[in-house]
Design goal:
By secondary structure, the chain is of the alpha/beta class. Helix content is 49%, strand content 12%.
């Protein structure tokens, strides 16, 4: 593959050099004809009457007559040039002056010359010539036709897509990009961290292509296709790039949207062309990123008719992957974060034999991802990778890369030589909470309300057993949030009803504190109420955590277009009643806890007004040690002496 591409590139380069040389020679010749210096800079034209006058005065030295053109060149004596050319002759005394004269009758001209010779007015020589058409004349006559031909060639090449193959005449050609082996910036499996199981699955495909006998001797067959599934930013495309960097076979890469075009039949044609190229270069790998753009389940789009171009493309893709023909040696890799909407025929064995799930990295995997992205960053000695991994729960690999890059930018902004721990903490704050807005003007009443609100969150999270451990509370605006409480949540695989109720109660602490201690409520709790409402509906309608609707789930993960509710209107009314009762119960519970610790809550709010940012140790000085210690809090307590950074934010947004 590399040799073919190299030869193709050499041919293109050679063609470009030859064309450039021809253009240069053409311009040199044209310039020589137009601007050549033949010693006759003093030249021009003259009428036949002027010619007779100059002859009679004895200004003419020689005559060159072109019989086939009825013209002649009249050369003027150098000492007489000033009478003919004036100041031009004075400026160019060494030039050979010449005038071109049109002749009507050569016989009359010869008689006049003979008469001038007899009178002694002309003593020079007369020469008859036949003038041939010059290159300039030919160029002027042919140039319009050449221009039309060149213009037509350019238009044709543009429509045909030129070297790219993306024009009208090549619209049915595949847009796949072939990975060039040996590129210096290639990605390998060493650059992929935090997805050990998924990487093992993909490495097996690469190993089969390198050493097929290891598997075929035992009667095994390599999977025809592997589908990478996972949330955005988990490394699906990065893993495919690593396959391209590690495999010693051609690697075709394209997006699912590359098949989609406004012209009918183009998508199917591109699929056929892609697999034709792949069969010619087999064994090889085809990677289709975001395959949901073309692999959506058929018959589920009500906006399109039966002749949907996307469905035709999908049908052709299904046929090429595993139809009547065979694709021996062609392995399909695809990536999507919407596997639930893909057509079942696309997911069956024989097409995508494996679904490789890439989940959000856990604590140990985040450490590995940080180690990869920190390799090229100049780090200070105070940077702790373990601490960074604990402070970024729920972050994907792309989020972690963004944190590292943002930290380097923050350090450069402050003219530092190395990236320090505070830069990473500021980067986490910036990414999770948004841009800090210290210049936003708040009135004294607004500031007090926000302080009471955030102190309510902090107080409830301190005294609720399953609430996330508090790290930092701030009333400095960030993004659209006027205040924020930051936590270090436990990474749970399952969540109990008691844990969810405690989290709901802590989230309602801000609104409860406003009502209790200011006598009114505000829009500052809008984000809290949105989260609590969604959580309550999820607990009751999906998780079956209601007494009246116990062990019932009304959620379907397979039905994308649910045109009717899977329950009756009476059940919907019951769900609404249960949600209201659950939220009201936790709201009253939160108010009760706040009243029990009213004095400490006021101290916390006053401290927030004075300092704007308080840490977990400040809350501990007011309320004492938290009665419900968790492993996260034990870790934080060990590092509280030198670590005062927020981790995960509970933002309180307001209407703009």
């Amino acid at each position: 593959m590399a040799d073919n591409n190299s030869n193709r590139q050499n041919k293109q380069n050679n063609g470009f050099r030859i064309t450039s040389i021809l253009y240069i020679l053409l311009f040199i010749g044209f310039g020589y004809i137009l601007f050549k210096d033949d010693g006759t800079e003093l030249n021009g034209t003259a009428t036949y009457t002027e010619f007779k006058e100059y002859m009679e005065k004895g200004y003419v030295s020689d005559l060159v007559i072109y019989s086939n053109m009825n013209t002649m060149d009249m050369y003027i004596k150098p000492d007489s040039a000033k009478y003919v050319f004036g100041d031009r002759a004075i400026a160019q005394p060494l030039a050979k002056p010449m005038l071109t004269v049109g002749v009507g009758s050569l016989d009359n001209l010869q008689e006049f010359i003979d008469q001038a010779e007899e009178n002694g007015a002309f003593t020079g020589k007369v020469e008859y010539r036949k003038r041939s058409h010059t290159f300039t004349d030919i160029l002027i006559s042919v140039f319009p036709f050449v221009l039309i031909i060149v213009f037509w060639i350019l238009i044709t090449r543009r429509m045909n897509g030129g070297a790219g193959g993306s024009g009208v005449f090549s619209v049915g050609k595949s847009k796949a990009r072939v990975y060039e082996k040996g590129q210096s910036d290639r990605v390998t499996f060493k650059d992929v961290a935090g997805q050990a199981e998924a990487k093992t699955e993909v490495e097996e495909i690469v190993e089969f292509l390198k050493n097929p006998k290891k598997y075929t001797e035992l009667g095994g067959k390599i999977p025809k296709g592997a589908l990478l599934v996972g949330p955005p930013g988990t490394g699906k495309t990065l893993l495919a790039k690593a396959v391209a960097g590690e495999a010693d076979v051609p690697f075709f890469s394209l997006s699912g949207s590359d098949f989609v075009e406004m012209f009918v039949g183009v998508g199917a044609s591109r699929v056929r062309d892609l697999f034709r190229q792949a069969k010619e270069k087999s064994p090889c790998i085809i990677f289709i990123d975001e395959i949901d753009a073309v692999g959506r389940a058929r018959g589920k789009n009500p906006a399109m008719g039966g002749n949907d171009e996307r469905e035709n493309t999908l049908n052709q893709l299904l046929t090429e992957m595993d139809g009547f023909g065979t694709n021996s040696g062609v392995i399909i890799l695809a990536a999507t974060n919407r596997v639930d909407i893909l057509d079942k025929a696309l997911l069956r064995a024989g097409r995508f034999d494996r679904q490789i799930h890439l989940d959000l990295p856990d604590l140990n995997e985040r450490k590995a991802v940080f180690s990869v992205h920190l390799r090229n960053i100049k780090l200070s000695k105070d940077v702790d990778v373990d601490l960074l991994a604990r402070q970024t729960p729920g972050f994907s690999g792309a989020d972690i890369a963004n944190v590292c890059n943002e930290a380097a930018l923050i350090a450069a902004r402050h003219n530092k030589k190395k990236v320090e721990k505070d830069d990473f903490l500021s980067a986490v704050d910036r990414i999770v909470g948004g841009l800090e807005k210290k210049t936003k003007v708040l009135t004294a009443d607004e500031k007090r309300t926000i302080a009471l609100h955030e102190a309510g969150h902090a107080t409830l999270s301190w005294f609720l057993e399953y609430a996330n451990p508090l790290i930092k509370v701030t009333i400095v605006p960030r993004g659209r949030a006027l205040g924020a409480a930051w936590y270090l949540p436990e990474e749970r695989q399952i969540t109990t009803k008691e844990q969810m109720l405690d989290e709901m109660c802590a989230t309602l602490g801000g609104r409860a504190a406003e009502e209790l201690f200011t006598g009114h409520i505000s829009t500052g709790a809008m984000n809290d109420l949105e989260r609590v409402t969604k959580q309550a509906y999820g607990m009751i309608a999906y998780a079956g955590m209601s007494d009246k609707l116990a062990n019932l789930c009304y959620y379907s993960s397979t039905d994308e277009y649910a045109f009717q509710k899977p329950y009756s209107d009476q059940t919907a009314q019951l769900i609404d009643q249960e949600v209201k009762a659950m939220i009201a119960q936790q709201y009253e519970r939160g108010k009760k806890i706040l009243l029990e610790h009213e004095e400490g809550h006021h101290q916390l709010a006053q401290l927030l007004i004075e300092r704007e940012v308080i840490m977990a140790e400040d809350v501990e000085k007011i309320f004492g040690k938290r009665p419900w210690a968790s492993r996260s809090e034990e870790i934080l307590e060990e590092e509280s002496k030198d670590d005062n950074a927020p981790v995960v934010e509970n933002k309180d947004k307001v209407e703009p």
